[in-house]
Amino acid sequence: MQNEDSSHEPPGEYVPSHPHSYFRPEPLSVESGLEITDEVHELAIEAAHQLGRVDGALSASDFSDSICTRLRRIEAVESARIEGADVTLTDVEAYRTRYADDTDPPAVPKDTREAVNCEEAISLATGNTGRHEAITPDLIKRLHEVLLDGVSSDGDVVGNFRDHMVHLPSPDLGQRSFVPPTPESVEPLVESLTSYAQAGGAHHAIIDAAVIHYFFETVHPFSDGNGRLGRLLTILYLMQEGYPESVYICQSEYLNQNKYDYVQRMRAVSDEGAWNEWFEFFVEGIRSQAEHTYERIRELHELQAEYSERYNGDSATDKLARQLLQHPYFAPPDLVDVLGVSRPTVYKAVDELDRSGLIREVTGRQTGRQYEASGVFDILR
């Protein structure tokens, strides 16, 4: 990947080794001296503006808890999909609905478990009410344990830094693999990252999030799960710096849609010092996803207004229609207490809304059926 306009030296060096040279990054420091272009600064300001719009839209919503749950799940699903998992939002919704009260749920397909683990890690790191923990090596290790719970491969070191070299294949067939630094250098490098984060970085918070993400992926401190964890650190850092809505913008959706550029722009930083090109890509992902999330929330508000107008009576069917944004995915027995009616009445209401197209059955089973609100999930997807 060529970058004739880069004015920075690479933030480290390649060290000759057999069979491939490995990259040894310089420790992360607030004294980095990076020169950020005006275009990147303006893009970061616009991204922050779009994040503020998301915050306002969520604050004005009567069903923000439900929206936030789904947006967190989209982030978890897309982050798992970047790493090759074959999983959908419906898979995670089905898992959560079926095993909501089960403290020891049965085994599920590995790909689904990876997305569920991502959601668990997001919740652990950020809390369900906007709280967040400080970024420390200990937190990073605990999050790694959650991410790899039940999905690790033989040889993976879970909950601790890797003890062996790793090779990352390039998406370009003719490009050599990228080899992160040696195992013994991982811990001090991660400590430099957490010190940088705790100090509040050196630039605009959204630009610093790009610095932190690049550095974490370049150090590659674990044998597996680095991509998922690095994307979670982006959320955590932005929350720390006053952007609690960053957890809801589904940045992994953008990165998954632009996976080739995602990998190659980071590689170009190591090879050529192409920081500003990486910043443009990363910050644009925050900006565009925040804008997209705002539009999603606006469309959901319009959908709620439509349902409230069309179904304004006192029947169970009307009440269920008005509750679809609060309960967009459900098994009918779960609605007995929500609607305050009997099971037969719930099933009658579900049948009526199924026939009208407001909801759709997603399991294909005759028993244990589950439904999703068609309009809600069409917007989310």
From TrEMBL:
- Segments spanning the bilayer are none
Which residues does the UniProt record annotate as the domain Fido?
A: 135-284
Region annotation (Disordered) ranges: 1-26
User: Which intervals carry biased composition (Basic and acidic residues)?
Assistant: 1-11
Q: Name one matching Pfam family.
A: Fic
Q: Which PANTHER family match?
A: FIDO DOMAIN-CONTAINING PROTEIN (PTHR13504:SF38), FIDO DOMAIN-CONTAINING PROTEIN DDB_G0283145 (PTHR13504)
Protein name (Swiss-Prot/TrEMBL): Fic family protein
